[in-house]
Amino acid sequence: MIVNAMASHLAVATAASPPVPSLLVNSTHHNQSNNVTTLGNPNPHWTDLLLLVVKGFVFSSIILAAVLGNALVIISVHRHRKLRVITNYYVVSLAMADMLVALCAMTFNASVELTGSWMFGTFMCDVWNSFDVYFSTASILHLCCISVDRYYAIVRPLEYPITMTHRTVSFMLANVWMLPALISFMPIFLGWYTTDEHLEYKIKHPEACIFVVNQYYAIISSSVSFWIPGVVMVTMYCRIYKEAIRQRKALSRTSSNIILNSIHQHRTSYRERYSDRYSEQFLHPDAETTTVGQINGGRRSTSTGSALSYGTTITEFNTAMNSRDSSKAATELNINGKLSC
Q: Which of 112, 128, 185, 207 is deepest in the core (most CB within 10 A)?
Protein backbone atom coordinates (compact mmCIF):
# COMPACT_ATOMS: atom_id res chain seq x y z
CA MET A 1 0.00 0.00 0.00
CA ILE A 2 2.82 2.41 0.76
CA VAL A 3 4.48 1.70 -2.54
CA ASN A 4 1.23 2.21 -4.40
CA ALA A 5 0.65 5.50 -2.62
CA MET A 6 4.10 6.73 -3.57
CA ALA A 7 3.65 5.62 -7.15
CA SER A 8 0.29 7.35 -7.41
CA HIS A 9 1.73 10.50 -5.85
CA LEU A 10 4.54 10.43 -8.39
CA ALA A 11 2.13 9.93 -11.26
CA VAL A 12 -0.09 12.78 -10.08
CA ALA A 13 2.88 15.09 -9.71
CA THR A 14 4.06 14.18 -13.21
CA ALA A 15 0.64 14.55 -14.79
CA ALA A 16 -0.19 17.77 -12.98
CA SER A 17 3.09 19.51 -13.88
CA PRO A 18 2.77 21.83 -16.92
CA PRO A 19 4.91 20.96 -19.94
CA VAL A 20 6.10 24.54 -20.47
CA PRO A 21 8.95 25.66 -18.19
CA SER A 22 7.63 29.23 -18.01
CA LEU A 23 4.41 27.98 -16.48
CA LEU A 24 6.42 25.97 -14.00
CA VAL A 25 8.40 29.06 -12.99
CA ASN A 26 5.25 31.12 -12.51
CA SER A 27 3.57 28.37 -10.51
CA THR A 28 6.62 27.92 -8.29
CA HIS A 29 6.98 31.62 -7.49
CA HIS A 30 3.26 31.94 -6.86
CA ASN A 31 3.33 29.08 -4.38
CA GLN A 32 6.38 30.47 -2.60
CA SER A 33 4.88 33.98 -2.24
CA ASN A 34 1.38 32.94 -1.15
CA ASN A 35 2.03 29.69 0.70
CA VAL A 36 1.11 30.16 4.34
CA THR A 37 1.05 26.53 5.44
CA THR A 38 4.78 25.83 5.15
CA LEU A 39 7.81 26.39 7.34
CA GLY A 40 8.98 29.24 5.08
CA ASN A 41 6.25 31.59 6.24
CA PRO A 42 7.57 33.74 9.15
CA ASN A 43 4.14 34.76 10.52
CA PRO A 44 1.64 31.98 9.97
CA HIS A 45 -1.91 32.03 11.25
CA TRP A 46 -2.71 29.62 14.07
CA THR A 47 -4.95 27.53 11.78
CA ASP A 48 -2.15 27.28 9.23
CA LEU A 49 0.29 26.34 11.97
CA LEU A 50 -2.12 23.68 13.22
CA LEU A 51 -2.46 22.30 9.69
CA LEU A 52 1.32 22.20 9.39
CA VAL A 53 1.62 20.26 12.65
CA VAL A 54 -1.04 17.80 11.57
CA LYS A 55 0.69 17.24 8.23
CA GLY A 56 4.01 16.68 9.97
CA PHE A 57 2.43 14.20 12.37
CA VAL A 58 0.75 12.30 9.53
CA PHE A 59 3.94 12.08 7.47
CA SER A 60 5.99 11.01 10.49
CA SER A 61 3.45 8.36 11.48
CA ILE A 62 3.34 6.87 7.98
CA ILE A 63 7.12 6.74 7.69
CA LEU A 64 7.60 5.24 11.16
CA ALA A 65 4.86 2.66 10.59
CA ALA A 66 6.41 1.63 7.28
CA VAL A 67 9.90 1.32 8.72
CA LEU A 68 8.92 -0.49 11.94
CA GLY A 69 6.40 -2.80 10.26
CA ASN A 70 8.79 -4.00 7.59
CA ALA A 71 11.60 -4.28 10.14
CA LEU A 72 9.40 -6.58 12.25
CA VAL A 73 8.84 -8.82 9.22
CA ILE A 74 12.58 -9.12 8.61
CA ILE A 75 13.36 -9.75 12.30
CA SER A 76 10.61 -12.38 12.61
CA VAL A 77 11.94 -14.43 9.72
CA HIS A 78 15.48 -14.07 11.03
CA ARG A 79 14.62 -15.13 14.59
CA HIS A 80 12.31 -18.09 13.86
CA ARG A 81 13.82 -20.99 11.99
CA LYS A 82 10.43 -22.37 10.92
CA LEU A 83 9.77 -19.20 8.92
CA ARG A 84 12.90 -19.63 6.83
CA VAL A 85 11.19 -21.18 3.83
CA ILE A 86 11.65 -20.30 0.18
CA THR A 87 8.45 -18.27 -0.06
CA ASN A 88 9.49 -16.03 2.82
CA TYR A 89 12.67 -15.09 0.95
CA TYR A 90 10.47 -13.04 -1.35
CA VAL A 91 8.62 -11.59 1.63
CA VAL A 92 11.82 -10.49 3.36
CA SER A 93 13.16 -8.92 0.17
CA LEU A 94 9.83 -7.14 -0.38
CA ALA A 95 9.92 -5.82 3.19
CA MET A 96 13.40 -4.47 2.58
CA ALA A 97 12.28 -2.68 -0.59
CA ASP A 98 9.27 -1.12 1.14
CA MET A 99 11.39 -0.01 4.08
CA LEU A 100 13.84 1.69 1.71
CA VAL A 101 10.94 3.44 -0.01
CA ALA A 102 9.95 4.91 3.34
CA LEU A 103 13.49 5.95 4.21
CA CYS A 104 14.82 7.18 0.88
CA ALA A 105 11.73 8.47 -0.92
CA MET A 106 9.01 9.38 1.54
CA THR A 107 11.32 11.45 3.75
CA PHE A 108 12.24 13.80 0.88
CA ASN A 109 8.61 14.00 -0.15
CA ALA A 110 7.64 14.97 3.40
CA SER A 111 10.23 17.76 3.42
CA VAL A 112 8.84 19.17 0.17
CA GLU A 113 5.29 19.04 1.48
CA LEU A 114 6.19 20.73 4.76
CA THR A 115 8.55 23.43 3.45
CA GLY A 116 6.96 24.09 0.07
CA SER A 117 10.30 24.00 -1.82
CA TRP A 118 13.28 21.78 -2.59
CA MET A 119 16.26 22.55 -0.39
CA PHE A 120 18.84 19.95 -1.46
CA GLY A 121 19.98 21.02 -4.94
CA THR A 122 19.75 19.55 -8.42
CA PHE A 123 21.92 16.48 -7.79
CA MET A 124 19.88 15.31 -4.80
CA CYS A 125 16.73 15.93 -6.81
CA ASP A 126 17.93 13.32 -9.32
CA VAL A 127 18.89 11.03 -6.46
CA TRP A 128 15.42 11.32 -4.92
CA ASN A 129 13.67 10.64 -8.23
CA SER A 130 15.95 7.68 -8.87
CA PHE A 131 15.28 6.19 -5.43
CA ASP A 132 11.56 6.65 -5.85
CA VAL A 133 11.43 4.90 -9.23
CA TYR A 134 13.94 2.20 -8.25
CA PHE A 135 12.42 1.02 -4.98
CA SER A 136 8.83 1.32 -6.20
CA THR A 137 9.61 -0.80 -9.26
CA ALA A 138 11.51 -3.34 -7.14
CA SER A 139 8.53 -3.65 -4.81
CA ILE A 140 6.12 -4.32 -7.68
CA LEU A 141 8.46 -6.91 -9.21
CA HIS A 142 8.61 -8.67 -5.84
CA LEU A 143 4.83 -9.01 -5.90
CA CYS A 144 5.09 -10.48 -9.39
CA CYS A 145 7.63 -13.08 -8.19
CA ILE A 146 5.40 -14.00 -5.24
CA SER A 147 2.47 -14.65 -7.61
CA VAL A 148 4.62 -16.97 -9.74
CA ASP A 149 5.79 -18.80 -6.61
CA ARG A 150 2.22 -19.30 -5.42
CA TYR A 151 1.19 -20.54 -8.86
CA TYR A 152 3.75 -23.35 -8.80
CA ALA A 153 2.96 -24.20 -5.18
CA ILE A 154 -0.81 -24.55 -5.75
CA VAL A 155 -1.32 -25.48 -9.40
CA ARG A 156 1.83 -27.61 -9.83
CA PRO A 157 2.71 -28.87 -6.36
CA LEU A 158 4.75 -31.83 -7.63
CA GLU A 159 6.97 -29.55 -9.72
CA TYR A 160 7.38 -26.93 -7.00
CA PRO A 161 10.32 -28.51 -5.10
CA ILE A 162 12.13 -29.11 -8.39
CA THR A 163 11.46 -25.69 -9.92
CA MET A 164 11.66 -23.35 -6.92
CA THR A 165 15.11 -24.18 -5.63
CA HIS A 166 17.47 -21.85 -3.77
CA ARG A 167 19.30 -21.19 -7.01
CA THR A 168 16.12 -20.21 -8.85
CA VAL A 169 14.95 -17.94 -6.05
CA SER A 170 18.35 -16.24 -5.84
CA PHE A 171 18.34 -15.66 -9.60
CA MET A 172 14.85 -14.15 -9.52
CA LEU A 173 15.66 -11.85 -6.59
CA ALA A 174 18.88 -10.71 -8.25
CA ASN A 175 16.96 -9.71 -11.37
CA VAL A 176 14.33 -7.97 -9.25
CA TRP A 177 17.01 -5.75 -7.69
CA MET A 178 19.02 -5.14 -10.88
CA LEU A 179 16.37 -4.50 -13.52
CA PRO A 180 14.85 -1.36 -11.89
CA ALA A 181 18.24 0.34 -12.13
CA LEU A 182 17.88 0.35 -15.92
CA ILE A 183 14.85 2.64 -15.70
CA SER A 184 15.85 4.72 -12.69
CA PHE A 185 19.47 5.73 -12.11
CA MET A 186 20.80 5.39 -15.64
CA PRO A 187 18.17 7.39 -17.61
CA ILE A 188 17.65 9.96 -14.85
CA PHE A 189 21.29 10.86 -14.33
CA LEU A 190 21.96 10.81 -18.09
CA GLY A 191 18.95 13.02 -18.78
CA TRP A 192 17.17 10.54 -21.03
CA TYR A 193 13.93 10.63 -19.06
CA THR A 194 12.86 14.24 -19.73
CA THR A 195 12.86 16.97 -22.37
CA ASP A 196 15.56 19.55 -23.15
CA GLU A 197 13.32 22.36 -21.92
CA HIS A 198 12.96 20.76 -18.51
CA LEU A 199 16.74 20.20 -18.24
CA GLU A 200 17.29 23.92 -18.81
CA TYR A 201 14.61 24.73 -16.27
CA LYS A 202 16.32 22.54 -13.64
CA ILE A 203 19.59 24.41 -14.11
CA LYS A 204 17.93 27.82 -13.74
CA HIS A 205 15.70 26.81 -10.81
CA PRO A 206 17.52 24.46 -8.42
CA GLU A 207 14.93 25.16 -5.70
CA ALA A 208 12.29 23.21 -7.67
CA CYS A 209 12.35 19.40 -7.98
CA ILE A 210 9.72 18.32 -10.49
CA PHE A 211 9.76 14.94 -12.22
CA VAL A 212 8.72 15.59 -15.84
CA VAL A 213 9.13 12.67 -18.27
CA ASN A 214 9.05 12.40 -22.04
CA GLN A 215 6.84 10.05 -24.02
CA TYR A 216 9.38 7.27 -24.60
CA TYR A 217 10.43 7.05 -20.96
CA ALA A 218 6.81 7.09 -19.83
CA ILE A 219 5.95 4.11 -22.04
CA ILE A 220 9.02 2.05 -21.10
CA SER A 221 8.89 2.87 -17.40
CA SER A 222 5.16 2.21 -17.04
CA SER A 223 5.49 -1.10 -18.92
CA VAL A 224 8.31 -2.37 -16.71
CA SER A 225 6.90 -0.98 -13.46
CA PHE A 226 3.20 -1.65 -13.91
CA TRP A 227 1.76 -3.20 -17.05
CA ILE A 228 3.94 -6.30 -17.50
CA PRO A 229 3.96 -7.25 -13.77
CA GLY A 230 0.25 -6.51 -13.59
CA VAL A 231 -0.57 -8.86 -16.47
CA VAL A 232 1.60 -11.60 -14.96
CA MET A 233 -0.02 -11.26 -11.52
CA VAL A 234 -3.57 -11.25 -12.90
CA THR A 235 -2.84 -14.34 -15.01
CA MET A 236 -1.22 -16.24 -12.15
CA TYR A 237 -3.96 -15.50 -9.63
CA CYS A 238 -6.73 -16.32 -12.13
CA ARG A 239 -5.20 -19.76 -12.64
CA ILE A 240 -4.82 -20.19 -8.90
CA TYR A 241 -8.49 -19.31 -8.44
CA LYS A 242 -9.58 -21.85 -11.05
CA GLU A 243 -7.44 -24.52 -9.43
CA ALA A 244 -8.94 -23.72 -6.01
CA ILE A 245 -12.47 -24.11 -7.42
CA ARG A 246 -11.51 -27.45 -9.01
CA GLN A 247 -10.01 -28.76 -5.78
CA ARG A 248 -13.05 -27.69 -3.79
CA LYS A 249 -15.35 -29.66 -6.11
CA ALA A 250 -13.07 -32.68 -5.91
CA LEU A 251 -13.07 -32.53 -2.11
CA SER A 252 -16.85 -32.27 -2.11
CA ARG A 253 -17.19 -35.41 -4.23
CA THR A 254 -14.65 -37.23 -2.10
CA SER A 255 -16.47 -36.34 1.11
CA SER A 256 -19.76 -37.59 -0.36
CA ASN A 257 -18.17 -40.93 -1.24
CA ILE A 258 -16.67 -41.21 2.22
CA ILE A 259 -20.08 -40.64 3.82
CA LEU A 260 -21.74 -43.25 1.60
CA ASN A 261 -19.01 -45.79 2.34
CA SER A 262 -19.24 -45.18 6.09
CA ILE A 263 -23.02 -45.65 6.00
CA HIS A 264 -22.66 -48.86 4.04
CA GLN A 265 -20.04 -50.23 6.42
CA HIS A 266 -22.13 -49.22 9.43
CA ARG A 267 -25.21 -51.00 8.05
CA THR A 268 -23.22 -54.10 7.10
CA SER A 269 -21.64 -54.37 10.56
CA TYR A 270 -25.03 -54.04 12.25
CA ARG A 271 -26.52 -56.77 10.05
CA GLU A 272 -23.63 -59.13 10.69
CA ARG A 273 -23.74 -58.51 14.43
CA TYR A 274 -27.47 -59.10 14.85
CA SER A 275 -27.52 -61.96 12.34
CA ASP A 276 -24.90 -63.81 14.41
CA ARG A 277 -26.86 -63.12 17.58
CA TYR A 278 -30.15 -64.49 16.27
CA SER A 279 -28.40 -67.40 14.60
CA GLU A 280 -27.04 -68.44 18.01
CA GLN A 281 -30.54 -68.17 19.48
CA PHE A 282 -31.95 -70.34 16.70
CA LEU A 283 -29.22 -72.98 17.09
CA HIS A 284 -29.62 -73.09 20.92
CA PRO A 285 -33.38 -72.74 21.59
CA ASP A 286 -33.22 -74.25 25.13
CA ALA A 287 -30.96 -71.44 26.36
CA GLU A 288 -33.35 -68.78 25.08
CA THR A 289 -36.68 -70.48 25.91
CA THR A 290 -37.56 -67.98 28.64
CA THR A 291 -36.89 -64.99 26.38
CA VAL A 292 -38.92 -66.38 23.50
CA GLY A 293 -41.68 -67.27 25.94
CA GLN A 294 -41.79 -63.71 27.20
CA ILE A 295 -42.07 -62.39 23.64
CA ASN A 296 -44.97 -64.79 22.92
CA GLY A 297 -46.97 -63.71 26.00
CA GLY A 298 -45.24 -65.64 28.78
CA ARG A 299 -45.82 -69.14 27.31
CA ARG A 300 -42.90 -71.52 26.83
CA SER A 301 -42.37 -72.07 23.15
CA THR A 302 -41.23 -75.07 21.22
CA SER A 303 -38.40 -75.12 18.74
CA THR A 304 -40.93 -74.43 15.95
CA GLY A 305 -42.20 -71.34 17.78
CA SER A 306 -38.63 -70.16 18.36
CA ALA A 307 -37.83 -70.51 14.65
CA LEU A 308 -40.98 -68.57 13.71
CA SER A 309 -40.17 -65.80 16.20
CA TYR A 310 -36.57 -65.66 14.90
CA GLY A 311 -37.67 -65.26 11.27
CA THR A 312 -40.15 -62.52 12.17
CA THR A 313 -37.55 -60.67 14.24
CA ILE A 314 -34.96 -60.79 11.45
CA THR A 315 -37.45 -59.42 8.91
CA GLU A 316 -38.52 -56.58 11.17
CA PHE A 317 -34.89 -55.78 11.99
CA ASN A 318 -33.84 -55.59 8.32
CA THR A 319 -36.82 -53.36 7.48
CA ALA A 320 -36.05 -50.98 10.33
CA MET A 321 -32.33 -50.84 9.52
CA ASN A 322 -32.97 -50.15 5.82
CA SER A 323 -35.45 -47.37 6.52
CA ARG A 324 -33.22 -45.76 9.18
CA ASP A 325 -30.02 -45.92 7.06
CA SER A 326 -31.83 -44.58 3.99
CA SER A 327 -33.16 -41.58 5.91
CA LYS A 328 -29.72 -41.01 7.50
CA ALA A 329 -27.98 -41.16 4.10
CA ALA A 330 -30.50 -38.76 2.55
CA THR A 331 -30.06 -36.32 5.43
CA GLU A 332 -26.25 -36.37 5.31
CA LEU A 333 -26.17 -36.05 1.50
CA ASN A 334 -28.58 -33.13 1.71
CA ILE A 335 -26.35 -31.40 4.26
CA ASN A 336 -23.26 -32.09 2.16
CA GLY A 337 -24.99 -30.74 -0.95
CA LYS A 338 -25.85 -27.49 0.84
CA LEU A 339 -22.27 -27.09 2.05
CA SER A 340 -20.82 -27.66 -1.42
CA CYS A 341 -23.20 -25.11 -2.91
A: 128
